[in-house]
């Protein structure tokens, strides 16, 4: 409604309406100090120039903050959905992973289950004292794989041949097979938490029970309450170059597709509806990050390793 009033004041020419709108040009660069001043005439007095500069630098580094910066600082009307992480930041965290880390340190896991014929994702992360190593696993039905590759414009069939996606015989996900392979993949690891969403998890849980598999399961919702702090944690780790993902192509695709949705309070979660492709790996990674202790904010790693369950 406020936008409607502003447009009416500008178009009507009604002298009874007084409207002063301070905004940056539509195509203004986020680091353009003239654009900052145009939208914030009080900058330098009661509007902190340093604060504006810090927000601009953050928005340049992380695309998920660009819409907020343009809307609240440059006073522009923008689409509030944005990519979660830039390719540049993701690339800075692409060091090779060390498999030994997952058997020498506490491990945290995120599980994102799919519909019958999409991607199911599991992401394990473990801290080596300097950075978090990321080990993703993806499953998808073998039948119809090439059709889904064309639909999503992603080379699933090639990735399957290269071993980046595990295919399951048939046209739909066989959760017994997934349960067995999860157990095999996690065998020997010092598991601290396996985060899961309730959706369809009752099917996988039954398979775990039937196979006698016990895991430290932690329910993790997909709403703002659980995802907002997880997104904050993951973003901090990526910005500080404290992750190593080894350039896994399927996870990279998921991160490129992931967009941010905000509520009225500014809390964030990953948005599936507006993503143009699969984001299951990004969701699983966020869940894993969400159940980790905040090691990157602690000064004493020894305390963490001695008390890995303190969150």
Describe the structure.
With 311 residues, this protein is an alpha/beta fold. The protein has helices at 2-12, 33-39, 49-61, 66-72, 87-92, 101-104, 145-152, 156-162, 175-186, 201-211, 224-239, 249-257, 280-290, 301-306, and strands at 82-83, 106-112, 120-127, 132-141, 166-168, 190-196, 217-219, 243-244, 259-262, 268-271.
Short description:
By secondary structure, the protein is an alpha/beta fold. It is 41% helix and 16% strand. The strands form two sheets. Strands 2, 3, 4, 5, 6, 7 and 8 form a seven-stranded mixed sheet that branches. The chain has a three-stranded antiparallel sheet with strand order 1-9-10.
How are the SSEs placed, and which strands pair?
Blueprint: H1 2-12, H2 33-39, H3 49-61, H4 66-72, E1 82-83, H5 87-92, H6 101-104, E2 106-112, E3 120-127, E4 132-141, H7 145-152, H8 156-162, E5 166-168, H9 175-186, E6 190-196, H10 201-211, E7 217-219, H11 224-239, E8 243-244, H12 249-257, E9 259-262, E10 268-271, H13 280-290, H14 301-306
Parallel strand pairs: 2-6, 4-5, 4-8, 6-7
Antiparallel strand pairs: 1-9, 2-3, 3-4, 9-10
Helix pairs in contact: 3-4, 9-10, 11-13, 12-13
Query: How many distinct folded domains?
Result: 2
Q: Helix coverage percent of residues?
A: 40-55%
Q: Which class of secondary structure composition applies to the elements?
A: alpha/beta
Largest sheet: 7 strands, mixed
- Could you tell me the radius of gyration in angstroms? 23 Å
Q: Which second-level CATH architecture of the largest domain applies?
A: 2-Layer Sandwich
Could you tell me the number of beta strands? 10
SSE string, helix = H, strand = E?
A: HHHHEHHEEEHHEHEHEHEHEEHH
Please state the overall shape, judged from the principal axes of the Cα atoms. Answer: elongated
Low-confidence stretches are 295-311
């Amino acid at each position: 409604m406020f936008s409607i009033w502003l447009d009416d004041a500008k178009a009507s020419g009604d002298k009874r309406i007084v409207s002063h709108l301070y905004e940056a040009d539509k195509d203004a660069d986020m680091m353009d100090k003239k654009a900052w001043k145009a939208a914030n005439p009080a900058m330098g007095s009661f509007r902190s120039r340093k604060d504006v500069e810090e927000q601009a630098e953050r928005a340049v580094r992380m695309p998920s903050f660009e819409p907020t910066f343009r809307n609240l600082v440059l006073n522009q009307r923008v689409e509030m959905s944005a990519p979660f992480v830039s390719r540049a930041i993701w690339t800075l965290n692409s060091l090779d992973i060390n498999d030994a880390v997952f058997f020498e340190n506490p491990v945290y896991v995120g599980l994102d289950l799919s519909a019958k014929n999409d991607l199911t994702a599991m992401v394990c992360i473990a801290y080596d004292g300097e950075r978090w190593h990321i080990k993703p696993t993806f499953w998808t039905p073998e039948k119809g794989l090439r059709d889904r590759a064309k639909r999503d414009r992603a080379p699933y069939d090639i990735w399957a041949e290269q071993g980046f996606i595990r295919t399951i015989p048939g046209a739909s996900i066989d959760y017994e097979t997934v349960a067995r392979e999860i157990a095999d993949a996690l065998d020997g690891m010092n598991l601290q938490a396996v985060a899961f969403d309730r959706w369809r998890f009752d099917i996988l849980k039954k398979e775990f029970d039937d196979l006698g598999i016990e895991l430290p399961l932690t329910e993790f919702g997909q709403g703002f309450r659980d995802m907002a702090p997880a997104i904050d944690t993951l973003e901090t780790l990526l910005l500080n170059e404290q992750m190593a993902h080894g350039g896994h192509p399927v996870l990279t695709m998921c991160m490129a597709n992931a967009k941010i949705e905000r509520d009225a309070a500014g809390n964030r979660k990953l948005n599936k509806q507006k993503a143009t492709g699969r984001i299951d790996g990004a969701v699983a990674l966020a869940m894993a990050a969400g159940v980790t202790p905040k090691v990157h904010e602690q000064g004493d790693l020894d305390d963490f390793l001695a008390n890995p369950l303190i969150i």
